[in-house]
Amino acid sequence: MVRSGDVLGARVRLARALGAWADKSLPEILAAPVDALKGVSERQGDLLKEAFGIKTAADLADLRYARWAQALAALDTSAK
Question: Is residue 73 helix, strand or coil?
Answer without folding.
Answer: helix
